[in-house]
Amino acid sequence: MRMLAVDSATPVAGVALLQDGIILKEEFTNFKKTHSETMMPAVDRVLRECECSLTDLDALAVTVGPGSFTGLRIGLAMVKGLALATHLPVVGLNTLEVIAHNLYHTDALVCPLLNARKGEVYCGFYQVDDRPRMLAEMRACAPEEFIEQARSLMQEQGFPQTVLLGDGYLPYAETFQEGLGEQLMVAPAHLMLPRAAALAHLAADLANRGEYVDIINLCPVYIRLSEAEYRLGKGAV
After folding, report:
1. Domain 103-186, CATH among 3.40.190.170, 3.40.250.10, 3.40.50.1220, 3.30.420.200
2. Closest to 126 in 3D by CA, of 104, 145, 147, 141
3. Among candidates 125, 121, 83, which has minimal Cα distance to 108?
4. Contact 132, 100 (CB under 8 A)
5. What is the mean pLDDT of the chain?
């Protein structure tokens, strides 16, 4: 199985090439430039430096959200275009699950957080053994609401601590520290953000079971309405 994985759901631009369970190359960029500038050149570099062409691939993988509305559209449009041109099947995965997969076999409650702006985070709640298992529906909420649900799950499921990771942590770090106290653990920098390599590893398992998505109907998972949709509903546009 040779798979190309593309992640553009957050400010991180990530591309990875996996072959038979081995990551051959990964590109990770979290600096200024937009995904429309970085993603296709990154794909080209990853394939070229691994002496691989699109025709050598068996499948594609992409994060479908939640995340940046624009970033998700860029990544999905690119992967759909590649899939249509090459007839390659596609695996689509939840961004929060991909971030949770940065950790492995922990007895803590794993909670990936993305900055949803407007005083909210996108959050997920996972038990992580060999792969993440969702314990509660992902949602967009205020940090205080997240803390309440995390504490409840820790008590119900017997988790001693909660690990926070993702770009939703830093904007509200003080709130999380005060609300979770000694039960809080924070992932180190190299595990904090989404990695295309983690996406590729998770997606390969699904691809080996033939669990592909219908690319024609593949859409971003936003969780909440975009600003334009919200304003339209309010009659403001």
Report:
1. 3.30.420.200
2. 104
3. 125
4. yes
5. 94
Measured from the Cβ of residue 155, the count of other Cβ atoms closer than 10 Å reads 9
Whole-angstrom distance, CA of residue 135 vs CA of residue 94 = 14
Distance separating alpha carbons of residues 210 and 33, to the nearest angstrom: 35
pLDDT digits (tens, 9 = 90+) for 188-222: 999 999 999 999 999 999 999 999 999 999 999 99
Identify the CA nearest to 146 among candidates 108, 186, 119: 119
Q: Is 3 helix (H, G, I), strand (E, B) or coil?
A: strand
CATH architecture of 2-95+194-233: 2-Layer Sandwich (3.30)
pTM equals 0.93
Query: Tens digit of pLDDT for each residue in 162-173?
Result: 999 999 999 999
At 133, phi and psi to the nearest 5?
-125, 120
pLDDT tens digits along 9-44: 999 999 999 999 999 999 999 987 899 999 999 999
Predicted confidence (pLDDT) per residue in 99-149, tens digit: 999 999 999 999 999 999 999 999 999 999 999 999 999 999 999 999 999
Nearest-angstrom CA–CA distance, 237 and 232: 5
Angle, nearest 10°, between helix axes 173-180 and 143-157?
30
